[in-house]
């Protein structure tokens, strides 16, 4: 009888510990996603400052302004729930925009606002670094969470008590395409 009571208590403690691990891991993923969104919104602020400057030489590069507005809109429409897949187009758009802005600055060095634009471009690059770091942390937390709900006994606790689905990490297919090495998994 005592042995049965000890076994029940032990199972209860294991279930309690793993339940809390799953909830904690899920909350870390959501926090990491919030950080990604925060950095993306900071990028919007820089784009808001960049937009009037680019409008000044819109005659030279009319499509550039549209791309800045489109990127800002795409960042603003990122979901509040963690979703690495939703970030792909925003990340690709930011990289493309940065390259086009650099080309525009090189093509029209006589513009008065070039120094201001250069400073804003440095800020855009810094924000891209912040977003990249936040995405790295997000993916790390996604991996930990997914492991927590896939490994036993967490998988059992999740199935019986929480029902949390796997979260898709962010991946950059464009960057992956440029790498020769492909892991065999």
Automatic annotation (TrEMBL):
The keyword Mitochondrion does not apply. InterPro entries: LemA-like_dom_sf, MamQ_LemA. Pfam families: LemA. It is found in: Membrane. Keywords: Membrane, Transmembrane, Transmembrane helix. Coiled coil: none annotated. The keyword Isomerase does not apply. It is a single-pass membrane protein. Belongs to the LemA family. This is LemA family protein.
């Amino acid at each position: 009888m005592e042995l049965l009571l000890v076994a029940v208590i032990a199972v209860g403690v294991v279930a309690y510990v793993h339940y809390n691990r799953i909830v904690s891991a899920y909350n870390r993923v959501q926090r990491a996603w919030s950080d990604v969104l925060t950095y993306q919104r900071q990028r919007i602020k820089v784009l808001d400052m960049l937009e009037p400057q680019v409008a000044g030489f819109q005659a030279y590069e009319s499509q550039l302004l549209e791309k800045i507005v489109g990127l800002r809109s795409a960042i603003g429409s990122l979901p509040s729930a963690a979703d690495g897949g939703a970030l792909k187009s925003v990340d690709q758009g930011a990289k493309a925009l940065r390259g086009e802005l650099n080309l525009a600055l090189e093509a029209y060095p006589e513009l008065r606002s070039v120094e201001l634009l250069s400073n804003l471009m440095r800020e855009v690059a810094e924000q891209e670094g912040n977003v990249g770091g936040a995405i790295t942390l997000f993916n790390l937390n996604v991996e930990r969470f997914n492991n927590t709900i896939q490994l036993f006994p967490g998988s059992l606790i999740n199935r019986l008590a929480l029902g949390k689905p796997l979260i898709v990490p962010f991946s950059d297919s464009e960057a992956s395409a440029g790498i020769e090495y492909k892991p065999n998994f």
